[in-house]
Amino acid sequence: RSSYSCRYFVLPCCFFDFHGKYSRRQSKKTQYREYLDFVAQVGFVCGFHVEEDYLRIPSTKRVSFIGKSRTYPAAERALVDKRITQFINSRRACAVATCDRRVGLNHEDHCGGLCKEAGSEPPENETETAGTIWMPGFQPREKLEQVRNCASLPRDFVDEVVLNVANLLLNAAPQKSCSDKQGGNMNTWNQGESLSLREVAEHLDKEILKKLKSEYGGLQTLLKNNHQVFEVLNGRVHIRDWRKEKPPSKTKPEVKRRLSAEAFKTRLCWFFIHHPDGCSLPSEACPYAHGTEELR
Question: Cα 23 to chain center, whole Å?
């Protein structure tokens, strides 16, 4: 309905109508085939020559529809738009009737035959034409969706929160250390204490929490994004100990192994810079760079 020159491609997947889930009406067809026929019907009602094609994709739902040309001249656009409006309203009326039928009302009496033909007359006050609101109350999403997974937060803000939380965990049990035997020597490395997300939030500045509240997942998402430093398990935050991380599996797909190798030493090691005991791993074993001279 946006313009006469509009063309479209659609790959039907989930079974939805204009106002909710699609309700089956023909038991002789599979649900998928019936839904495909409905999507094709929408294209025909909108005045398109609808073409059907099968995509070469690894999916059971690979039937697509393409509308490249119209079945009517541009001069008849207003008339066709009225027909489209009637079709949409008929589907809405049919959806309401189907719902009522489930509680014992007569579907045919309520639907009034609107779901049979697209050209059925809708109520007078619902006849909308081109240039007016297509669907009262419909709220489309913004053209540009705001990223709210903490990825777009300023780097200095994220670094400040990470450092604050890490110091909080390290200072929660200053005497607690984790022993590691390497080459016969006892090396202590402070792994800190684990705290619940709620306990961590209680120690953070109110302005920081306010800023995180507008992000999806808030503090938890930010900490999970910084998986080099933190491990969040069952609602509790831990300092990540890279000595306990499993070595890369040899059975990993080649692509994943290659990507992992390409990322080796491309970022600075947070522990080497900020942890009071440094990194728990020797330089050659740590996937992160111990100093700028190691950066790739």
Answer: 26
CB atoms within 10 A of CB 114: 22
How is residue 79 written in tokens? 């008339």
- DSSP assignment of 37-93 equals HHHHHHHHHTTEEEEEEE--SSSS--EEEEEEEESS-GGGHHHHHHHHHHHHHHHHH
Q: Three-state SS string across 95-155, please?
A: HHHHHHHCCCCCHHHHHCCCCCCCCCCCCHHHCCCCCCCCCCCCCCCCCCCCCCCCCCCCH
Q: Are residues 203 and 282 both part of a single domain?
A: yes
- The domain boundary, picked from 75, 96, 117, lies at 96
Q: What is the DSSP letter of 268?
A: B
Residue keyed to tokens 């000595």: 243
Give tens-digit pLDDT for 160-205.
Answer: 999 999 999 999 865 444 444 444 344 689 999 999 999 999 999 9
What would the pLDDT profile of 23-73 be if each residue is shown by its tens digit? 888 888 899 999 999 999 999 999 999 999 999 998 899 999 999 999 999
Provide the token pair at 181: 């035997």
pTM of the model: 0.51
Tokens at 273, concatenated: 């810079």
Backbone phi and psi for residue 157, each to the nearest 5 degrees, phi listed first: -65, -45
DSSP-derived letter for residue 5 is T
Question: Is 110 a domain residue?
Answer: no
* Cα separation, 134 vs 85, whole angstroms: 7
Range of the domain at 43: 8-96
What is the SS3 assignment for 227? coil
Place of tokens 């800190």: 192
Burial of 237 from C-beta contacts in 10 A (0-12 / 13-18 / 19+): buried
- Residue 149 covered by a domain: no
- Tell me the C-alpha distance between 76 and 72, whole Å: 7
